Amino acid sequence: MTHPIQLIAYADRLGGTIPALGEVLRDRFAGAFGGVHILPFFTPFDGADAGFDPDDHTTVDPRLGTWDDVRALSDDLDVMVDVIVNHVSARSPQFRDVIQNGDQSPYAQMFLTMGTVFPEGATEADLLRIYRPRPGLPFTPYPWGESTRLVWTTFTAAQVDIDVRSAAGSAYLISILDALRDAGTRMIRLDAVGYAVKTPGTSSFMTPETFAFIDELTALAHERGLEVLVEVHSFYRRQIEIAQRVDRVYDFALPPLVLFAAATGDHAPLARWIAERPENAVTVLDTHDGIGIVDVGPDPATGEPGLLDAGQLGALVEAIHDATGGQSRAATGAAASNLDIYQVNSTFYDAMRRDDRAYLAARAVQLFVPGIHQIYYVGALAGTNDMDLLERTGVGRDINRHHYSDADLERDLERPVVAALLDLCRFRSDAPGFDGVFQSRLDDDGWLQMRWESASGWSELRARLDQGQAELRWARADGLEHATADLLEIPPTDA
Questions:
Q1: By CB neighbour count within 10 A (0-12 exposed, 13-18 middle, 19+ buried), where does 456 fall?
Q2: DSSP annotation string for 289-310
Q3: pLDDT average, residue stretch 164-171
Q4: CATH architecture assigned to 93-161
Q5: Interatomic CA distance for residues 394 and 326, integer angstroms
Q6: C-alpha neighbours within 13 Å on the C-beta side of residue 1
Q7: What is the pLDDT of residue 301?
Q8: Backbone phi, then psi, for 35, in 5-degree steps?
Q9: Does residue 114 register a pLDDT over 80?
Q10: What does the pLDDT average to over 206-220?
Q11: Which residues are marked as active site?
Q12: pTM of the model
């Protein structure tokens, strides 16, 4: 396989350090994952947004390790690292210099203000047109030398937006690419890149100017041997469009459609998406963020129908809240800080009602669709909602960001559902047919059927997510057919 299954993990929350995370992958998860997306480990990894607001994006937080440790991971694992394109911490040396020296700072042009984007001023319509993932306008007043400026802050006041078109902003991003290349990184994830270019008179989200910038940044990454994953939550047709222009794009429509099928028994929207989705996608059911909703709903800009209509979307959100006993409701929207208007916060295992067989069936569907497959560390351990962490921090997404101790890890590895999921990953890495042609269909009885076939043999999955049922069948070209109707017991592929 060109790209093996990847684990998504914070080094501090699984293992505790970058070397320890490597030990977990190689020993406790042996054979299940051949790659890792290490969530931000820069200085500091524990800022206002769990590392997505670095003071210095080119240094490894010494509490987690060094660039040599990242390089050691890449010796036998595909390593993906975030490039936080849109913003940097308000605590960064560059922005602190601007606060002190204003326009006399060498970094003054690196940061966006309302005035730099709207030099002639902005109308009410201009401001309301700006797309933002959280309520309110994207500006925060900051000292700027002897004056005060409205600094552009798309996400939080602690994350100040970079002028990616300025010489200083461009040099900053290139310095990050160089550091990641030197550390042996194979893939980069462009975090929040959809917001990176601000264009007056537009939504400043995934505009033609944004696409042009993505093309330019991708070319710079390719020059350094880096493959690019673009992270954008948006209308599903926009994701298809993005996929045509980049190496990889997330399949953020898959998680809510899997949950919709599990909650309602209606697999048709999921089957339709599997037939239409781009094959150069990175498949996920869970990430460090919440479960996306905008990705399957109507286009908020034009009203064009989505993969689910507004009524189905509302029913899905309520189904998740019901499945979690209301825990997701307590972690979502106005109930928690870090507001995201397009996500529901919960572990995927809880959203599947902690039903082991249904959860494994959902993972099997994920691993059968084409693309690179990523499994979040909490999902790999079938983790449940961390209400204690949510209560301590008040950050909705922390419900799905548990800190695993060694004792937690050892306990969960003994659970049948976790052992079975790791075996399912090993099956996906070794089973026949996945180097060939993919087909899928929804049969008359409502079962989703997915099949891979090549000269090496074939593998097939039949699933009913609402019933928690899944059947695997496979055969090598020169061998007997094998099958299992219980994903809690997956025999070796050559058994």
A1: middle
A2: S-EESTTTS--TTT----SS-H
A3: 96
A4: Alpha-Beta Complex (3.90)
A5: 16
A6: 22
A7: 79
A8: -155, 165
A9: yes
A10: 94
A11: 191, 231
A12: 0.94
